[in-house]
Design a protein that fits this description.
This protein is an alpha+beta fold and about 60 residues long. The chain is about 15% helix and about 20% strand. It is built from 1 helix and 2 strands.
């Protein structure tokens, strides 16, 4: 992606841009289930939702240690 194609919010503080992008994804959700299908890892939502956009069922993943 060239700098001419960046959205306006990405021109400022890099930390703010990162938080805004990651805040919209479901990465880190406790409902994500990782499956191995045909030799590839596939992420699926335990609530049956679409992976990629954060939904109202988002829960922080609890650490096992």
């Amino acid at each position: 992606m060239s700098s001419a194609n960046l959205p306006q919010f990405m021109w400022g503080d890099p930390a703010y841009a990162y938080e805004r992008i990651e805040g919209a994804t479901c990465r880190g959700c406790g409902w994500i289930i990782r499956l191995h299908v045909a030799g590839q890892r596939v992420d699926s939502c335990g609530k049956g939702r679409r992976i990629g956009m954060r939904c109202k069922h988002y829960e922080e993943r609890k650490n096992a240690g």
